[in-house]
Queue: 4 jobs
Job 1
Amino acid sequence: MAKNFSIKHQPGFTAVAATCFVVLYLPIIVLVLYAFNAANSTSEWGGLSLKWFRSAWQNTEVIDATLRSFQIGAIAAILASIFATMAALATTRTAPYRGLTFQYAAINQPLMVPEIVTGVALLIFFSRIKIFTGYSGLGYLIAAHTAFCIPFAYLPIRARLENMDLTLERAAADLYATPWKTFRRITLPLLWPGILAGLMLAFVISLDDVVITEFVKSGGQDTLPTYMLGQIRRGITPEINAISTAFLLLSVAIVTLFFFISRKRD
Amino acid sequence: MPDKPGRNAIEVANVSKIFGSGEGQVAALDTVSVSIRENEFFTLLGPSGCGKTTLLRLIAGFDFPTHGEILLYGQDIAPLPPFKRPVNTVFQSYALFPHMTVADNIGFGLEMLGKPKAEIKARVAEMLKLVKMEALAGRRTSQISGGQQQRVALARALAPQPKVLLLDEPLSALDFKLRKDMQIELKRLQHETGITFIFVTHDQEEALTMSDRIAVMSAGKILQVGSPWDIYDKPAERFVADFIGETNFLTAAISGIGNGKARATLKSGSTIEATVAEGFQPKDNATVVVRPEHAKLTKDKGELSGTVDNIVYFGTDTHIHLRLDSGEAFTVRQQNTRSAGCGFERGDKVGIVIGNDAAQVLRD
Amino acid sequence: MATAEEVAKAAERRDIRGRWLLSAPALLVILLAATGPLLIVLVYSFLTPGPYGDVKWQFSLDAWTSVFLERDIFDDTLSIAAAHVTIFWRSIKLAIITTIATLALGFPTAYFMATRSEKTRDLWLFLITIPFWTNLLIRTFAVLQIIRNEGIINTILLKLGLITAPIQILYTDTAILLGMAYVYLPLMVLPIYASMEKLDFRLVEAGYDLYATRFQVLRRIIFPLVRPGVIAGSILVFIPALGAYVTPIVLGGGKNLMLSNLIELQFGQGRNWPLGSALSISVMIIVMVALLAYVRNAGSSGVRHG
């Protein structure tokens, strides 16, 4: 008897897909495993231990860099999602007007430029401003992160807005709600999942950044990724694995949350 | 009931709405004027794209007219934003707020008007009772059925006691049975609340059964305003006669006009009496309409004669399609009786009797 | 009192002004901290390097000539700058191979995901999203641990006796390629999956009904319909691969430079900011050519479905 014909089958595709998933996860699993290695080098396995987590926890440089990453990420993500929300409200659900395409292109522009180029540009620009103003705080990093986070935050917010039913706001206006009240009571609550998704996406993108931060940071402004890059360049210890594992856990937690929010329908 | 005198709730005066500009200009409404009386169930009827929804949106304030005035009890409301107009809308898609409960939806308008909490609560309870939704007050709007959503939308729009209620094809999303129930329900609500209803629909049957008066619209213009009886039995134009129900069009020469009656000489040579609008001048090539149920078939001679072309059974009645000797098509609708068939067969030579008062001369 | 038409016109003007005000903060931040400085880079590429970095405000085309040419320090003759050409060629080559490799792996993966049942599809999407959201540096570091001489691949091969000495993968072009393909794979899968998910499989049925073989269905029906996703994925992989910075440092060990490392060098030890600027603009030009090709292709694909 012949096997039933499946219209969705393509020979070899499942094997390639399976390979892809294994290959994607295998290095991550090995990395996590070695974080629990008791041996002093990453070349041998010395049994299970939490000592590298302890060592990372006691490393003030790591803690400083982590806190700095969170600080920059949180501020940049909040600013970026506020600005992206405003921009999304301005650029959706309207008849085309002069400058709309420009606004749209300008907001997405950071996505089109390789990070290295933006990094170089900001290095030049900010070094001038540093000389001019004498200020060399975290402001530069926060500004840079906010700028490249805006298009990422804009993405889910805009998508959510475009799928929103305009008649709901019309109905509110019909029921005596002023434009501001309509925004507060109808638009904002319905848009909220999109804003949250944008906020998380922006936070992760900020936490991930190496290149732009590397070029913009002043001395003593290492974020966790630039600190790790510096360590890896010098030679690897299982401590990096431990830090990576903790970082990974955070990412998985945020993706799970993101997934939950963006899949939720109402 | 049709000619209940009263004040005008809404007066639309010479209103035009033009979309686009330059070459691509489209007039969705072309100098429309109509008056809607207080406490009236008024229907805007027409095919899609005729401008009926545009007119409704202008009254609601979602769009502004290009020219003309819209008066609400004598005050021009055309420049006011929707939240400053004492007019509420029941939307085609209901537009219930998905993040609020049924009760919160109904109370929204009152809340926006800044009414005290106790008053809102009482009014919401009253509205829930009116639409028989007391049991579902705490539900999210996504957790109730389409018919229930329809009731909530009605209650929400009625709660602030608007001077006029606008209904934009509110029954179109419901299935046949539910739609019939809601038609009766809507009439009851209008009667109980005494609010002026402006109802938009493309369904002529719905318009005929529910309305006090109907305005038939086509291509941005109002063609005829009148009671359902007027619209159905005395259509003024070919479009109205054709759009409302089924009808037969016959070419005739009109003469002897007087007292709202005229003599119509048909192509067959026989002459019948027809109702005619005032001011109609005698004409050779006029059109006369006869509703299929106002004509009778006979095996003897009638005003017209022809051959049976096709017989279609409809349960309550049978439609007999004929080819007249003049070459024109004609349909006769015959009530079915329990015992026998329609009594005719395809190919039969038959006569058609047109009753007194059955024919109407069109203005066209 | 104003007529309704005047009110409507005024409301429209107010609406557009309001929209500009709303998008102003985002536009301003992007102008100051992303787009605007690109213009300064362009200006810098035409200046003379300063002795301790930065620039002297003196017009010069030297930076641009030295992108591909070098001046002999003794006899002042110009010759092709072999090192720069090698790096340009390596970057473009590696970016293209990475794009092709991720496409070859990503297309079947996206197809596999899109043909799962509705319920499990979300799970597969979740599995591909986790690496996507995981720090790129961490993932590159994970690859490093797999392919180094003491890594799992070499260890297993040694234990099996297939090799007697570890294979040197790390610090080669192959290592950079493996790393880039690994980190950018999700960027290829996600847009293809997005197109594939919308694919109407009744069209595939129609294809089989009209005597197409599996390969013909794939080539003539599925591929044209998901082409926008394929192009988007290719662009999303090509641009960052061309400007890759972390991967060559971590896996190339600083020996096998790519464009971004060459640029960084000019702002560090090289102290030649104008040359670094000219190189940056060159990268931008390559990217712009690629984007233009994308817009052309995406625009001309007349296939609509859904």
Job 2
Amino acid sequence: MTTVPTRPLQSSVAIEDITGLKERSLGQRLLASQPFWVTIALIIICAVMTWDQPHAFATSDNFYNITRNFAFIGIMAVGMTAVILTGGIDLSVGSLMGLVGVVCGLILQAEHHWTLAILAGLLTGAAAGAVNGFLVAYVGLPAFVVTLGMLSAARSFAIVLSENKMIYNFGPWGDTFNAIGGDSTLGIANPVWVLAILALVFGFIFNFTAWGNYLYAIGSNENAARLTGVPVRRVKLQAYIVSGLTAALASVLIVGWQGSAINALGQGYELRVIASTVIGGADLMGGQGGAYGAVIGAALIEVIRNSLLMAGVDANWQGAFVGLFIVLAVLLQRIRGKRSA
Amino acid sequence: MALLELQGIAKHFGAIEALKGIDLSVEAGEVVGLMGDNGAGKSTLVRVIAGNFRPSEGEIRIQGQVKHFHKPVDARAEGIEVVYQDLALCDNLTAAANVFLGRELKRRIGPLKILDYPAMYARVAGLFQELKSETRPRDLVKQMSGGQRQAVAIARTRLSDARIVLMDEPTAAISVRQVAEVLDLIRRLRDKGIAVMLISHRMPDVFSVCDRVVVMRRGTKVADKPVDKTSPEEVTGLITGAIHAV
């Protein structure tokens, strides 16, 4: 060895001083989380609207409507979160809704059992998601391009399959099928129950399973994930399948609620879904986001829409407000990011 | 018997000879510095040992037994761990999640297998204590200093029973104080009988922590000397080619 001291001085602080420090408390973590602030915003808007329109806004009917309306978007946003966590994006969910709706409608029209309709619908969604996922994960094409292609193709399939007609003659099992998406249980619309269960399940998966952890790892540093032995391709493929499945689930419910299937179903929904996840704190670069954020983001968009309607604002202004909130959400994220860095 | 022995390792990429007839042996508890200019073949050699590349010629022996690594997992199974130059860390994950990435501890609850956070935090806290690093298991890697990030990457190699740790430029691009921290981490690995191969451009680091220095130039080994039998001047000369192979 040379004459260099073997134990260089590290710092003026004893290690015990640092390791003994309390780690970030629950309160601090809460204050640093975007879904928390979006929840606050949601509560404020609701409070203001309740004060302003007590007989229109704060009614159980309106609550029922709002929750049901955002349930469909929320369900898709939870699945979309899986994809966005990996740093990808799924632009095809709106078109998949249309395709799945037509598939369900045709099967019911042919007088098949409602379980077959739902199964076929979910399979369609999963298959389309698998195609997206395969092209992104195994062929290595950009997610934006692949899912843009699927957006176009799925809508086209829907139009071809439906022969560009509305399907409403649902056959003998139509009533059961319609009840699943259209009825309520214990005073809450069925899609809202589905959303609640889905959010809980995925909240659990994202936080407490290795698979969930891998989604964050891939979105954070894909190369690192690969080097440490994470099955990157498989997990990405599965994320797109999840997104396709949740789009199919939302479609099954919305077709049941409306009692008819049209091939234009879900047009433009992909943007509302992505907006929900972003407002709820998901980072389009990957590695950040969660199930609760996706749900609360969807809720905020719907409450804003509903509030503007009730306040008598021209419906055409809705887009502007939603756009404003998307930019504000990302701005908030950026400010928080700077502070914690 | 040497822990790791390379004999006549060569690697061609088409017509390009990246490595030519490399012989090298590393003993347990030895720190070997691997130096050379850009393109001298250091990284290629590391990748051959780590199982990223298969050698075109030659043999790799671990404790006298010939081994063939087809992929990095094979090398890891033989106790060879790599700390990559960019550290291969995920910024948005905690230190503990990064250390356990790809080999998480799980707990069974009924039919479900969930991540065992308490066990992982405890284990990682123990590793950091062992490395005497001021790093906390629950902190996000993105909030960490360069030295702490190194500690996370090194803690990862301590999870399994690593016998050889390859470190690719661990002290590039970090502050002076953090360099001292990293060199200390290397000494702790050595004290546990682990062999360390340190790839570095920084002469002072190599001379303060290594027992032996290996110099590469244009794909061949031009020197292999104990550090107390050479000098930074001589090594510089060997790297640049001003002094010929000895």
Job 3
Amino acid sequence: MAEALLEINNLRIEATVYAPGEKPRNAVIVDDVSLRLEPGKVMGLIGESGAGKSTIGLAALAYGRGGIRLSGGKIMLNGREIRRASSTELRGLRGREVTYVAQSAAAAFNPAKRLMEQVIEATLKHNLMPKTEAEARAVELFRTLSLPEPESFGQRYPHQVSGGQLQRAMTAMALCPKPDLVIFDEPTTALDVTTQIDVLAAIKTAIATSGVAALYITHDLAVVAQVSDEIMVLRGGQLVEHGTVQQIIEEPREDYTRALVSVHKIDHREKLPEGEPILRAEGITARYGAMNEDVLSDVSVDLYAGQTLALVGESGSGKSTMARVITGLLPPREGTLVFDGNPLPGALKDRSREELRQLQMIYQMADVAMNPRQTIATIIGRPLEFYFNMRGRERDARVQELLDAIELGEGYADRYPAELSGGQKQRVCIARALAAKPKLIICDEVTSALDPLVADGILKLLLNLQKREGVAYLFITHDIATVRAIADSIAVMYQGRVQRYGTKTEVLTPPFDDYTDLLLSSVPEMELGWLERVLEHRRMESAGN
Amino acid sequence: MHPIVKLVTQRLALGLLLLFAASVLIFLGTQILPGDVAQAILGQSATPEALANMRAEMGLDRPAITRYFEWLFNALQGDLGTALSNGRDITESIASRLTNTLFLASVAAVVSVPLAIFLGLFAVRFRDRWPDRLISAITLTSISLPEFLLGYIMMYVFAVKLSWFPSVSTINDSMSFLEKLNAVALPALVLTLVVLAHMMRMTRAAILNVMQSAYIETAELKGLRRFNVIARHAMPNSIAPIVNVVMLNLAYLVVGVVVIEVVFVYPGMGQYLVDHVSKRDVPVVQACGLIFATIYIGLNLVADVVSILSNPRLRHPK
């Protein structure tokens, strides 16, 4: 067995939690986790939020965010214990032996400094090479990572490059001091899928050429399967399973791993359009305020009663703007909306209370969509009072009915949003929308802030409710897997236009137009060698053209 | 046009407009006061005929708007009129007073601004530990004491007991720079103590505000020293609020030093203004008002422009 670069034994990490209204208490974030990483190898750390994966990643730099304490166990880096090293020793290894790539490069780069200065900063700080040499190395890394104009790229400021480029620049920053180990903490999570695939390929190439070892942290098993040699599955701060990539995705031993592998495998057979559409949007064109450009141009879609229409697209495609138009927050410049056979006024103030009631909305961030100072009963009860004038016992009974419908049951009515988990909060938002007995609910990225398993639960709930209540969903998402799970028909949006529109089978069956092809083929699949296959395929295609 | 040129030009134009409005207010303010210059010269017992003659002679019987523009254009050409009390040319008298005031303010600023910013950085470095608390306590105490009291305490300690500095800060043109510096040492020290707390606390708050950012963590994970992280990574992103509070305090050093000048008998603008207010010398009051307004607006303009320039998104658009 080769000598270990990083060896973590029985690591225990604790933090003091200051919950509102309670005494500060000690929480165990990571409990008894061990891992071993050899030089040049890539280990994937996977788990849902709260699994402690980022915390373990940062522990490899002996760093704890906020009040986190590395309270027990051993962290051996290059043969020496670093958990209890002095701050001088730690400064010596951070940025030299171990470097870090953060989730959001947009936030992790200093907006006031040029990229080059930041990329070579650690290299210069540790006196690893003279400035000219470091700059030459940075340019070389920019080239390896396929950044545009590598010679002058470093002269730009962070706001002058795109999100995907910034994430690659961050990788260059991590590799510049020739570290032994790089911690990648969800490096592609904040990116669009079509960007993610390029960044993923760039990172993989850079790791391979530099021979650096890496800890790759993500919640997306399909992504980590493309870059890692081994995978560790974590849950609630404990190790669930450890194995090679192949073993984990092909023969998972633990139930939890099996659940992660089979996530997004909801079998939903599409319903075909029938009768009159509940919502018909025709030729919608819209722009914001004084902008000179239309954000939506000539968008026409139909949504049928009791069915789901998915609007799919990347950031900036206009899908959320479409939701704003339908809800009346942004009156369209051109085009008409017909709701249940009657024309629907474009502006919110022109709509009747009845029209408002029939059209409800669920948001991406459940925690900011609820008043933190109101109880769940107040939150769900508000539409009952507003639309149906329900009070007292009648209202309470209906609130409980709705809580049952979202599978929360007894005892939740008197709680506050802060006492609920992310998935439970989103369920409450669903109950609030249902309380108005709407015919249409607009779901704006309702599962994107949730962990995959929790998101699956929400999708299943939405499907059940649709079957029971006959409500239609306009489902806005960037995630193709979610679309497959819930949609009856799909509109693919690109640069404010509908690129492709039809039933789910029609849209997801070839032949594709170029954009849909790019979009669909960029979604990571849970199999070995997927990344190489897609890239090879794309190379052949472009060579063929 | 580069967006930054446009923004800066806008600010400059706005500053000029503001200055114009201030001049109108100053002029109106002195007009509303009971009595006028003629009354002031001739005194309470003057006959109506004498007053009328005097007004005609001084042009005071013309409409206010005519007099305003005459005053403004003269002021723009550097002619601030003649003082009523002693008949001297105001521009000449003010020039030496203003020089003295600016000298005192500069000495106080050169000490207090770097010190406040350094203490701010230092307080962030040792946040919630004893150096931070000590700095907070001392600066808070100094800002809580009235200026004159602080002035007399300094005078008692450093002039009377220790005899390090003179208690009266008289200066004249024949003194060397060092002699002048020695003369203003005590008032400059008091002013420093007065403005230090405000600037230091704002610096601390502005930097703490960006210390939560992800790029601070990035810098720490590069192995940088904590003080370097604060000074090189946090500070450049909090320049705008810091510059604003610094300029506000610099303005105070110029226009708000009346009390200190009186305590140390320093021949500056503040004393000059107070003397002539008590003598109802309207042209001098107007002139002082105009100069104070110019300095105040000018310094805030500088703060605005520096804030704009410190934003890389504006300096380097996409």
Job 4
Amino acid sequence: MIPRSVRFALSGISWPVYVLLYTPLALVAYYSFAPAPNSVGHSLHAYNVLLHDGDVFVALRRSLILAFGSAIVSTALGTLLGYGLCRFRKRNAKGFLAHMPSLIIYTPIIMPSLVFGISELIFFNFVHGATGLLAAGLGTMIIAHITFQVPYVALTVFARLSGLDPYLFEASYDLYANGLKSFFYLVVPVVQPAIIGGFLLGITLSIDDFTISFFTSGPGSVTLPIYIYGAIARKGISPEINALGTLMISTIIVMALAHFFITRQRERADQLAARGNVS
Amino acid sequence: MIPPAALAMTAPAPRGAISLHRISRIFAGGIPAVDRINLDINPGEFFTLLGPSGCGKTTLLRMIAGFETPDEGRLLISGREMQDVPPHKRAVNTVFQSYALFPHLNVEQNIGFGLRMQGVKNPERKRRVDTIMELMQISPFAKRGAAQLSGGQRQRVALARALVNEPEVVLLDEPLSALDAKLRNELQIELLRMQKHLGMTFIFVTHDQHEALVMSDRIGVMSKGRIQQVGAVLDVYEKPKNVFVAEFLGLSNILVLTPTGARTAQTPLGELRVDEELNGHKLAMIRPEKIWIYNDTAAPQGRPNTFMGTVHEAIYMGASTQYRIDLGNNQFVSAYDTNNQAAERSWRPGEKVTVELKPENIMLIEP
């Protein structure tokens, strides 16, 4: 039991943390309603400017293509990798060999994205110089994003599979499923939540990423984070940037609330189902 | 009503027969888990592999299922060589110790999984799943998930999931070990009923000698990767081949013999007469329930193999009492006596008794 005084002190500390977390977000929203030029009072002027800025929408579209394109591919690859790591573990491997798979998976996650981005840049330049392929652009960005997302997806799938009864796989073989059928009729449905989780994580990571995108993008492949950075570098933080930020924050809040209500509804349905079955 | 599986059993003779020729499986470290085993299992037989944990019985079962590959030897199922046949192409289904029910499927879908993988389409598949659920009395749970079932229900679903495919052989890896005693007894009887009804070959793995005795047509007793003895239940229990089999199948009194004639030997208890010719045997055994106990006053006169002693310990077990009887010279025998009389008529520690080891009840065994 934690003493009352300590609990009180801890709850006291939590408030400044909340303030530091959410005041900046509130400020962004506040400044987005800046007055229009040559006028006073709050306005939606910045939003109006933003809506008529074609470049923003081009950048947003590119960000979404990058996010979904890379997440789809990395989900497929990461699922296979997670499955392989779990199913084909060397049972009697010792020392370095036993840790190889986790080393391969964790290294890209631990690697600073700056190092990761620069090394990707060097690699793409090298290949381009040698073969003329892989010119910097959306293509190279998608490849780079796939690369850093795969370990995250593999990890979530691996964690889910490791928690399963290992005899489930044998049971599927025993019941006339070959490797392929076992994968599609047992593994995929069972790890489906992990696959979806990995996919969503991939999209989040991709939309969020600036560093790796910055190093691997080309002249014609400006994504939203790079666009924002460029806009700030050119003319400082404008009300339009704040408006854009506010829109992104709102989208995330709406999504989080939707997730909360959907899962709560599902949990209630599950509880009801479980209760109905006790009889 | 004759279920389809019973009709399928009218196929040619070797269907469901299993033949092992010098099968070995050697794990890392060079220790053989299964060591040059020869074994023939008859079609339609309830065969039990009995042995302590680590004796190789599960490895043997897994080789028949195809999850392990023998390092040497030949394995034939229904007369067909299984060397290069993967598990999904064997007409063999397994009931796993953990049941291994698919968590993403309900009872009905779990049972139908094997048929679905074999490409059995739906009116037919549903009919067969419904029939087996009816037979196993699990129809009311058809739509439940595996997590919403009790242990006994899971066990039934796991069995139904194997049987619905009408395999030639059903492999059962300690399927009852996770259940409580009462449920285990019920399911033992039900399992036997299903096996006789469907006529499939059942290979049952257990470390529980009582379960093995109750269920099996024949038992193969295993130790250290080798089969110690194969035989009908009665033979394995009454005429064990060696000390391991004698002791694993129940309490036994082992006697060290120094032969003095063709059918007589000196033992630490005294002179002993046996029915069989000794033929160089150095050991004999007698089951505790085969030892007769008499009140000191009612002891039979002039009969061989009678010894005087004192009750050292009496363990009351309800239907019977297990006595430990001190025959002097630091020699003890264990004896069971049925409590078929009023409780006060049984013997108490310290009482003088005479025990008789009838010659026909003494079995010669190997070390």
